[in-house]
Specification:
The complex is a heterodimer of chains A (about 220) and B (about 270). Chain A has about 220 residues and is of the alpha/beta class. Chain A is about 25% helix and about 35% strand. Chain B has about 270 residues and is of the alpha/beta class. The chains are: A alpha/beta (about 220), B alpha/beta (about 270). Chain A: Belongs to the MinC family.
């Protein structure tokens, strides 16, 4: 197999990098291939290539070197580089985004518990304590402090549970002061951000209309 | 241009925060525009005493670090239309999150908009204290009729004499118990004032209602009949330049019948 293979399908052109080849080899072959292509085609419009790097993750520097080669040709450019692999760090990140995490510890005045993904909270948050996560928050514990879902800017997230004793509910950049907004009693309250970017309270039974995506993920 | 006053004591638990909240409220009741600044970073309380703790979105450290504008961090007390504001302290960091220059810059900014900027100083004489006095034009020193509080107040007076503020410091004697002063078991007002050599701004009697109202997030000055509330209102009037005579420290009245039963119980 050659170090770089050109393929075409209905989406456009793809350059497949052989994962066994050295990067130096790839660069040489790529330049050669593009040279030939430039000579063959008398195209006047831009052609974008997807670069498939298989099980090789290109470093920023290597990406730059590829860009450099493409920049030598007027009509060619990289659309994007698509590897088949991700780093362990990214994998953990993805896993965190996709799981519901359990938190049970007490969060006291001045403390902030920062989490990633969805959180099922079973503990006690005292006044002045803060639970903060990128995803949704489902509360079964006691909340007298602040809950922040969708940190820092995910307004499609929700907070579900008994919210009437909390100080504040925050979703993305929207903030509700519970004392003023008075959510209804009971453990089935849903806090969400509506189409007008205002934090509102509803009931769990209305989740299907409030946020269909979450409703379906919960198996409703 | 308003005036900035730091409320300090050295010792903890003598009523700095309660005094800040009540003097601020009393001034607002007189129609003055007041901003209370809580500099007790890490252990903030002023928001709780005023019943504004639920409304905190940004704090003074957010302002200093550029996450919020000063106007965004100010919390309006809705009970006093547009007269009383609070700049809350941060809770998730400590006193070193602020420098003296930063504290002074914020107070100077606030002085442009308010008649009074009252700075609630943390206990101690470390960085928090230095931050609190940095932007202050004057100081109110709070003490109680206890030797430990007076000793610490004396230390603070000494520190302020070394780095004098624009105006002279004043003294508030808080938590006065009439019967103990009458019995000579607690230091009396003249003795404390003379000992510290600081002009007396006012006295506040000890009263259970102070704790009760503070637990509800309502300053005691709103209770028109309460002697402690009156003490704070008098202090606010004196700050405004009025001449108000010092209130009498009344001994708890003992009725005729209770005196008689007292005789019998002795026997």
């Amino acid at each position: 197999m050659q170090a770089v293979v050109l393929r075409g399908n209905q989406d456009g052109y793809q350059l497949v990098l052989d994962q066994a080849a050295s990067f130096k080899e790839i660069k040489e072959t790529l330049r050669e291939l593009l040279d030939n292509l430039a000579a063959d085609s008398n195209a006047t419009n831009q052609i974008s290539f997807d670069v498939l790097s298989n099980q090789r993750l290109l470093t920023a520097e290597q990406n730059q070197q590829l860009e450099q080669i493409f920049s030598e040709f007027d009509h060619f450019q990289i659309h994007k580089v698509i590897p088949d692999v991700i780093t362990i760090e990214d994998a953990i990140h993805l896993k965190e985004q996709d799981n519901v995490h359990l938190a049970t510890q007490t969060i006291r005045n001045g403390q902030t518990l920062e989490m990633k993904g969805d959180v099922l909270y079973l503990g006690l948050i005292n006044e002045g304590g803060r639970l903060l996560t990128t995803g949704n928050i489902y509360v079964m514990g006691t909340v007298l402090g602040i809950l922040q879902a969708g940190y820092p800017s995910g307004e499609d997230k929700v907070v579900i549970g008994d919210l009437q004793h909390a100080q504040q509910i925050r979703i993305g950049e929207q903030i509700s002061i519970v004392e003023t907004d008075q959510p209804s009693k009971g453990s089935q309250t849903v806090a969400y951000v509506n189409d007008l970017h205002v934090l509102e309270y509803g009931q769990l039974s209305d989740l299907k209309t409030i946020n269909p995506k979450i409703y379906h993920r919960m198996g409703g | 241009m308003g005036k900035s006053i730091v409320i300090t004591s050295g010792k903890g638990g003598v009523g700095k925060t309660t005094s800040s909240a009540n003097i601020g409220t009393a001034l607002a009741l007189m129609g003055k525009r007041v901003c209370l600044v809580d500099l007790d970073i890490g252990l903030r309380n002023l928001d709780v005493v005023l019943g504004l703790d639920n409304r905190i979105i940004f704090d003074i450290v957010d302002v200093v670090e550029g996450r919020a504008k000063l106007a965004q961090a100010l919390i309006k007390d809705k009970r006093f239309d547009d007269l009383l504001y609070l700049l809350p302290a941060a809770q998730n960091t400590d006193k070193t999150a602020l420098t003296e220059d930063q504290a002074k810059a914020i107070v100077d900014e606030l002085k442009k908009e308010f008649d009074y900027v009252l700075i609630d100083c943390p206990a101690g004489i470390e960085q928090g204290f230095l931050n609190a006095i940095a932007g202050a034009d004057a100081a109110i020193i709070v003490t109680t009729p206890e030797i430990s509080a007076v000793r610490d107040a004396d230390r603070v007076v000494g520190l302020l004499e070394k780095n004098p503020l624009k105006e002279e410091s004043h003294l508030i004697i808080n938590r006065i118990r009439g019967h103990m002063m009458a019995d000579g078991e607690a230091m009396d007002v003249d003795e404390i004032t003379h000992h510290l050599g600081v002009p007396l701004l006012g006295i506040v009697l000890d009263d259970d209602e102070v704790i009760a109202t503070s637990n509800r997030g309502e300053p005691i000055v709103l209770e028109s009949e309460n002697p402690a509330g009156r003490g704070y209102r008098d202090i606010a009037r004196r700050l405004e330049g009025e001449t108000v005579p010092l209130m009498k420290i009344q001994q708890p009245k003992t009725s005729f019948w209770s005196k008689i039963s007292h005789w019998f119980s002795r026997g």
